[in-house]
Design goal:
2 domains, 10 helices, Rossmann fold, single chain, alpha/beta, 215 residues
């Protein structure tokens, strides 16, 4: 194996924790007592609207506006005219909670120390995903960052994985994808000709252990 390609959100970057804490902080500023149901509703709305952007149905900014159009009425709050400014308040709270998983840096360091080329393949915007890597101190460990925006295709499209391999200068058969999403990071990657390993943190998997198993 010559390269390892990591997913970002909920693989290297703790998106779930960051969103959860960010929403709690945001709702406190809105003077709403946050509950687990609020968090679950936000994640459900996020998934629907993010997927609408990935499908090319709306712009990235419009899917952000649509999140607020759904979530604020759920809270019993009015929808403001300036949705972009309203979303920026949430975004600030989210960004303040950005954090890597504790095993992310050791896993990347191990891969680098074993002469594996390192890439990230993530569905998202190039600006935000690179900002995450920089903020959590992992940017210098990664050679190539490929996003659905920069590639013009996201996971699970085969070209997303193949283009990332090309950017790393390796054949698909010489690359291993690691991620938390079984469909996007494992099944689809294997269909494209890569090796792939599922990161199941609920089952006790760690990134460091998975990277050590790559051959």
């Amino acid at each position: 194996m010559k390269a390892v390609i990591f997913d970002l959100d909920d693989t290297l970057f703790d998106h779930t924790r960051s969103i959860t804490l960010g929403v709690f902080q945001w709702l406190e500023e809105l003077q709403v007592v946050a509950t687990d149901n609020h968090i679950a509703e936000w994640f459900a709305i996020e998934k629907v609207n993010f997927n609408s952007w990935l499908a090319g149905e709306v712009s990235h900014q419009e899917q952000r506006r649509n999140r607020l159009r759904s979530f604020l009425p759920y809270l019993g709050l009015p929808v403001p005219e300036d949705l972009d400014s309203a979303y920026d308040v949430f975004l600030r709270c989210y960004e303040q909670q950005w954090a890597a998983f504790d095993d992310a840096e050791p896993a990347l360091s191990f891969a680098k120390g074993n002469d594996l080329r390192i890439g990230v393949l993530t569905n998202g915007t190039t600006l935000q995903q690179n900002a995450k890597l920089a903020a959590i101190g992992l940017a210098d460990h990664v050679e190539v960052v490929c996003t659905s925006e920069s590639l013009g295709a996201g996971k699970p499209a085969p070209e997303a994985y193949l283009s990332t391999c090309t950017a790393l200068g390796v054949a698909p058969a010489d690359a291993c994808m690691i991620g938390d999403n079984l469909e996007l990071d494992v099944i689809a990657a294997r269909r494209a000709g890569l090796s792939a390993v599922h990161l199941d943190r609920a089952a006790g998997d760690t990134l460091t252990d998975l990277v050590r198993r790559i051959r």
